[in-house]
Amino acid sequence: MQKLTDYIFNLSPKKLAIYLVLGPLVLFLAHTVITIAFRTISNPETSQFANILLGILSLVLSVFILLWLVWLRSAVYSVQETEIGLARKWFDIAYAFLWIFILFNLVASIIESPLKNSTWSEYVYLIYASREFINFGGILIAYPIVCHYAARATMVKRTNKPASLIGAIPFTLLLLFGTVLGIPFVHNYFSSKTSTKSEVLIIYAISLGLFFLILVIGFIAAITGLV
Question: What is the pTM of this model?
Answer without folding.
Answer: 0.87
